[in-house]
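Lecture 7 notes. Example A: sequence first, then its structure tokens.
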Amino acid sequence: MRNFLRSLPHVWSQTAGLNYLLVAVRYMSNRRRRLLNGTDYLKSKSGYAGRVTMPNMMREMVPTKVRCAHILLKHKGSRNPINRNTNQRITRTKEEAIAEMTRHREEIMAAEIRDREFRKKATNISECTSAQNGGDLGFFTRNEMQGPFSTAAFLLAVGEVSGLVHTESGIHLIYRIA
């Protein structure tokens, strides 16, 4: 879990064990700050419209769909330890998969054009059928993917590469496209 927290985008923070989104308040007007704090009220043509709360403001800021590409490395303990592209049984351990994925992530992060390097690696090494599309999964909502995968994908900024994400399917690297 700690590795996942370290891989959060710069707009997220951890204080007192609680994760929360940092809002760039210094660039906001005083009225907007009061709205974010829940200390101001919206008015409609008919008068009082109710208090503005942070969860309501956040709903507008958080996307309902994202588009990502991913690289999947399976291990013996994966849900279905068979490479979907070659139909061969997976024999690597979880530790070996983590070490291999860590090496691939470092190579991607060192590349000048991360998008191109990520897609090339996804095509060549990913053990998911999406490898044929450069790892592109298309647009998806939060409920369409496994929990840890979905959480990591929605936390990424566009153009950002995740840390290692562990799911029942194996070890993932995620690249947010849109």
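Example B, a different protein, same format:
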Amino acid sequence: MTTLRSSTGLFSHIVKITAASCLALGLMACGESKNAVFSFVDNVTDPGVGQGPEIPVPGPEFKPTRYDYANRCVALQSPSDGRFVTLENGQLSATAATLSASEPFYFKPSSLGSYLLYSRGKQLVSGSGLSALSAASDNNVFSLRVAGDATNYPQAMAYDTEPQPSDITKYRQFNDPLVQGDRYVFSQAKTMKQLSVADDGKLALVAAGDDPAQQFALVPATGCAEFPEAHDNTVGDTFKGQTSDGSVLGMADVHVHLSATTFLGGAEHGSPFHRFGVTHALSDCAETHGPNGFLDLVGSLFVSDFDGHDTAGWPTHVDWPARANLTHEAIYWKWVERAWKSGLRIMVNDVVENETLCELQRNVTRQPLRDCNEMNNATNQIGTLYALQDYVDAQYGGRGKGFFRIVLSPEEARNVVSDGKLAVVIGIEISNVLNCKINYNPLRQQQPFQETGTGLTENSYACDKEEVVAQLDRLTSLGVRQIITIHEFDNAFGGNGIFDGMILNIGNRENSGGIPSKEINALVGVLGNPSQTSPLGFLQTTERPTGEFWTTYDCPEEGQEGFSGYLFGSSGGAKMTSISPTVLFDVGGIDSPLGALGISDPLCPYLGQGFRPGGALACYPAKKQCNARWLTPMGLFAFQEMMRRGLIFDIDHLELEIKSQVLELAEAQPKNYP
């Protein structure tokens, strides 16, 4: 457990946590669902079958709000003649004389105040008739309001769309009037037309108006088919409040990618939630990865397994999700709910993208116009997070009632944790953060600590100080409170920590200026030439072929003089994969001139800056290697700007020396940071 003691120390505490394995699936007992917060039960063979949740019958004085029907079994009644809506030959009509003769509908929220009406036959109301859940669309989404309610409700943030800061502010500050009533109107999301009862009793969609025929009473019913949903299989309620000394208590998971659904150029399948439910969120991935998963190039590269995978999604989940699987959704919202009930109280969600892998996937799918800008795609994911908060609120029956709360300050986080809910901090983890991509110049003379980034014969940056400030303002206005300044590849701020000796090194070469096309086949050969890697041949050729592999040095060893040691483990860096100096001759079918000299296995030259390993040729010694690109003046400026704003910086992916530099910089701040 983690005890969080002070409002100023909360985010500081997060900085110090390096890992927390907090999907604590074993911390709560499994048992019958009838005693849990929700009464849904997973049924693997047919998850839609059931009698629906038991709901109390409202007393005569009870007047619910538009949110109170979430996950309820309800019948629609026409107030004009008291008849109930029923289903006859695929046509909905208000002709049933009694409640028992009516068609009960499961009200599944798609967002706050909007519902899918799920019939006993497992279909969705689309107007006068029904349609299949598998083909759900805006035709099936209905906004519910008390008749006469003219409140200007703020719209939920759009999925995978960068929100406007003004919309976030409006949404967060909205004081919901919680209008009560006993007559409701249904407005179809696509057309904004309203459900109405015609003279013959049949339901139809008509232009919105004040006609009583467009109003319905909503009556508790039984016999609903349960809307398909995953279950957390927990018993009892989670804890809330403070300890005896006023501290808030809980676990923290400080590095998750809940919103990464659309990164990698669309290579990932699934989503943490879907307005049409789990069957859409966690569907069979063949639609994305092809039969047997054979088109999952990025995922295959990540695990070096090109045999495909079982594509089945919920509820069977044969091959995915899995810890080592990069391209399938692994954090569905109900699983987060289970972790929260088990004690998870802080989650840092890093929005994420990788331009190089996005470009690779873009070429696999032949989508040359797909935007792979990391900042754009990462900020789009912020919209997904706000949309998820709205969705969870809707499932829990009202604004602010859900467990998933995005927080912007230590004080707000403490209040959320004290209330027994999950405080979600938004972070960002991309290689070209703040649009500060680097293009290497092989003629450069400046060392990293001297770099100006102005180009000509030196390295060039895609950003300047004004861009750094503008992008930091952009992120903070969207609610970002943590930044990973250097991720998998070198950028204008410095070098990344090396955790992979081959694939990511190739990515660094591509990201920092491009790979000459004549080297593509050599790289494919190093990968073992699996057929799925042929799309490497479609990487962009318009970039300057000046990208470089990591320039490295031998990582310090435990006990080495002047080295204080590693915090975790006994070594750093990674063992690198080297490419023979003759590989280009081999690929071209040309005899190496070295062969004429009797040199069949030449030593590889070190072509990195300062004649270190790496650079233009991936040639490295056998010892584990660390990145020799240290903090740049632009990096120093960026860290100072972040600390001035009170932002958290995560040091996980920083080069070894940069970690020490920025921690010393933080300790030297004139006031407590953060």
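Note on Example B: The chain has 16 helices and 23 strands. The longest strand covers residues 344-353.
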